[in-house]
Amino acid sequence: MRVAIAGAGAVGRSIAGELLENGHEILLIDKAPTAISVERVPQAEWLLADACEITSLDEAALQRCNVVIAATGDDKVNLVVSLLAKTEYGVPRVVARVNNPKNEWLFNESWGVDVAVSTPRLMSALVEEAVSVGDLVRLLRFSHGDANLVELTLPEESALAGTQVGDVEWPQDTSLVTIIRGNRVLTPSREDSLEAGDELLFVAAQAREEQLEDLLSVRRNAAS
Fold first, then answer.
1. Would you say 96 and 82 are in contact if contact means Cβ atoms under 8 Å apart?
2. Hey, CA dihedral for 215, 218, 223, 224, is it positive or negative?
3. Is 3.60.150.10 the CATH number for 2-118?
4. Per CATH, domain 132-216 is 3.30.70.1450
5. How far apart are CA 145 and CA 214, in angstroms?
6. pLDDT class for 222, splitting at 50, 70, 90?
7. pTM score of the predicted model
8. CATH 3.30.70.1450 in the chain, residues?
């Protein structure tokens, strides 16, 4: 898979290194000569250019990319890169970094963003996830379809502990995608049973989050 990353700072280089280890073809783009550190990520292609300019993106052959990641420290730049990648080059997947949480509302399909990653929100979510059991934690927002990646750790008192996945009447517009049980990552089947302490990852419509939390949490027991 070919991936172009706009922004060759610490974030962009770290993403590039991870993707290269997984066998992907990476192009790093930055307009600052001081950011071009080929020796830090020698396996990547490098381009000294302004990713907000059509001529630069033509040179980068953005139409050949499967994914574009707008990873600069400037939200305005990330929005422009995302919009150009999607509308001018038809890139199938555009991921954008949100630096200021106040700008999150802009990072949607209108600006060509498929997935918006807010570092402050993600960090706070991970803190919440580390201390919360039975509470729904929003980890990531997907622009298309108003869906989120959410996590809930199943509490000991949940009525669903011991229930098979296929026997649960999940809310509409929700999908259980992963069960993390200790050191294991499970792709859930209908026959798998839910266990107390399981970390459950869902893709869920935002309007269904409260319903999903009520289904899985201790509050459901108190109401029944």
1. yes
2. positive
3. no
4. yes
5. 22
6. very low
7. 0.63
8. 132-216
